[in-house]
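Ticket #4471: structure output looks truncated?

Reporter: J.K.
Steps to reproduce: submitted the chain below (761 residues) through the standard prediction queue, then opened the result file.
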Amino acid sequence: MKTKDTAMVQRLDGEWVLAFVHPESGERKTIPARVPGNVLGDLHRAGIIPDPYFGMNSGMLRDWEFVDFTCSTAFQAAPAAPGERLELVLEGVDTIGEVRLNGERIGGVDNMFVAHRFDVTGRVDFAAENTLEVVIHSAVNAARKFSRPPVAAAQPYNYEALYIRKANHSYGWDIAPRLVGGGLWRGVALERVPADRWTDVMLYATSASKQSARLMLDWNFETAAERLTGFEARLTMRHGESRFEKRFRADFVSGRIAFEVPEPHLWTVRGRGEAALYDVTLELIRNGETVAVKTFRTGIRTIRLDRTEELAADGSGRFHFILNGEPVFIFGSNWVPADALHGESRERILKSLALFADLNCNMVRCWGGGVYEDNDFFDWCDENGLLVWQDFMLACLTPPQDDDFARVIADEAATVIRKLRNHPSLALWCGDNECDEASQWRGDGRVPSTNRITREVLKRAVLSYDPSRDYLPSSPFLTDSCVKFGGSRHAPEQHLWGPRDEYKGDFYRLHTACFASETGYHAIPGVESLKKFLSPGHLYPKVDDPEYLIHAAQPYALTDGPYAYRIKLFLDQVENTFGVIPEDLETLVTASQAVQAEAVKFFIENFRFGKWKRSGLIWWNVIDCWPQISDAVVDYYYAKKLAYYYIRNVQQPTLLIMGEPAAWQCELRLDNCLPRAISGRYRVSDLLTGEELAAGEYACGADRCEKIGALRVSTGKHRMHLLEWEAEGVWKRNHYMLGHTPYDLGYYRECLAKLRALYEN
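Returned output as attached by the reporter:
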C-alpha cells in the first residue's frame, strides 16, 4: 500500500549526535549516531564497545542496559503555508523517552511499535536553526516502576517486557541475543499538515469473482471549512489499461459507500495467478476544486479463515485459508526481525523477503516476539503475492490484565490496524504467539479464556478497525475444553515442537494438526560463517563452550540456562540420524545440515501427503536475526544451508511424494497445487545405480493430492530413491530415503553429491 498524502514531509534522518555517560568511567561522551539506527550500533562504530555479534561480546553489555542516551540534531525548517499545522513525527522510538524541541519538552514516548506525533505549530523557528533532542531512557530501569501481579508471567529473561512495549526478543530469546539497546529505530520527519486532508481511509472487497466485485469504502476527513457544503469525492482505480471511477457526495466528514467493480483483476498468491494491484486515487473536492488527495495501491480480493475451534472426537477439523472463494494450501515460514538490533541494516528486510519468494512460499507469519514491520515490507508482499499472517506483539507470556495495560494494547492495536489494513497481502490478525500455551506452563489451573487482552481487547480492536479480516486469539488457539482434554493436540492449528527427536518419529508422523504454524529442526551454519562470529579455538561445538552457549542463544552463557540444551540437541539429532557425531568440523556441518534438510522436507511432505485434511505448514524459519546455531535455513550472512534447497524443491506447485512404509509398500502420491488438472508420466529409480523401480502415467485434478501408484519395499535396506514426474511438459525431481535410522553417513554423502546437482541449480 504505497501511500501519498497531501501533507508535505521534511525528512530529518541521517547523521545525528549521541550523548551519554559511560557506565564504567563515569565520563560524559558524545559520538556520531545514525537515524534510523540503534545505540549499540553507534557505540560499536565509535569503537566504544566490541562487535556485539562476535564471540562472548553480547554477554558483556549488561552495564549498558542501565544507561540513558540523548539523540540530537539541528535542522532548518521550511516555512508553513497559512492554515497548515506542523507535526513532528517519530516513526519508531525504542522505547521509553522524552522529546525536546529548542530546549522545551514537547512530550514523551513509551511504545516502540507505533509512531509518535507532536503538534509543533508555533514552536519551530523558520528563520534560524532548530534543535531536536530525544532522550532514550533505560528500558530496564523504566520497567522497575511496575509492580507485577501474580497473574502476569514471562519467560526467565523477559520479565522487563511484561509492561514495556518493546520487542520481547531484545531481552533474550532462544533465537535471539540479549541486546536491550534502543534508539530512533525508524525515521524522523517534520510534516506540514494541510487544513483539508483525508485522515482515515479503508477500501476492501466484501465479495469478489472474475465477473464482479463488491467494494466498501470507509472514510474520514478534516476540513477548516465552516460549513460542510459543496463537498464531494472522486475515487479512481487503475490497473494497467483498466480504469474505474466512482464519484459521491460527502455531506459529512465521515461516511461509507458500497459499489460494484465489473470484471475486476483479482489479487492472488504466488503460483495461482497475478498479484494484481490497483493504483487508487481518492480526491476530496469542494465546489469543483480538489482540496485533498490520497493515493495508494491495493488489491481486490476476499480472504477468510475457515476453522473449527477444536478437533472432533474422530480427529476431524478445519483450518483453511479461503482466497477469492477457493481454499489455498499454505507453504509458509516464520518471520523474525531482519536484525536483532532494530534500526540497523534495514536493507536486510527486502533482501530476506526475496528468499521467501525463491522458496516458493505463499505466506509469511510475522511472529509476536518481534515488531510490526513497516509499509515497505507489506508493499513487497502485496507486489509478490505473499500472504501475511500478523501476530500482535505478545509472545510466550501471560500478560497483565489491568485496565491501564488494556488501554495501552487497545491504542497500539488501533494504530497498527489502521496503518496496515489496506494491504491485500494481510490475511489474518492473531492475538499473540503461544500465550494460550503459556497459560498452561504456569501450572496454576488458569484457562486461556481468562486472558482479556486477547479475548476482549484485541478482538474488539480488529472488529472495530478491520471488520473485513478474521481474528485468531492466539497461536495456537486453545479453548478451555482443549485444555481440559490435553492441550494443543485437540486444536486444529498447532506448533509442532515436541521432543525434537527422530524427525520421522511418532510425534511428527502421527500428529493431529490440520495446520501447523511452527515447526523446525536444528542445523549448524557452514564453517566460513562460524569463523565470522566464533573465536578460532571455539569452532567445534561443545555443550559447555561459552561462545556456543551465547550463540545457541543462551544469555550470559549459563550452562544451566533454559536455552543451553540446544547445543546437545543438534548433536543428538546428528547422532540419532547417522549413528555418529563426526569429529571433523566440515563433516559435522554436512551431517547436521543433512539432518535438518531431511527433517523439514519430511514435515512439508507429510502435510502435502495429507491434503486437505491438512491445509498448510508455516515452518521455522528462513533466516537468522544474528549469527547463531538455529532452525533457520539461511544463516545471518545469507549462506544457505542444505535445507534451503530441499525446501525450495518440495514447495514447488506439483510434487511426487513417496509415503512411509506400510504392509510392505510405500504409496506414491502426486500433489497438484495448481488451479488446473495435470497429467503426465512418472518414474522411480535408485539414485545411485539408476535401476528403475516403478514407472507409469498419472492424472491429477486441480488442487488435489491423489494416489498414482505404490512401490514394494523392505525397510531393512537403506536406499535413496529418485522420484521424477512430468508436469506440463517439464520433468521435476524429488527424493526419498528408505529405511530406519541410523543411516550410513558415507552412503548419504555419496547420494548428496548427486542431490546437490539436482537441487542447487
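Triage note (M.O.): checked the attachment and the full C-alpha cell line is present. The mean pLDDT is 96.
Status: closed, working as intended.
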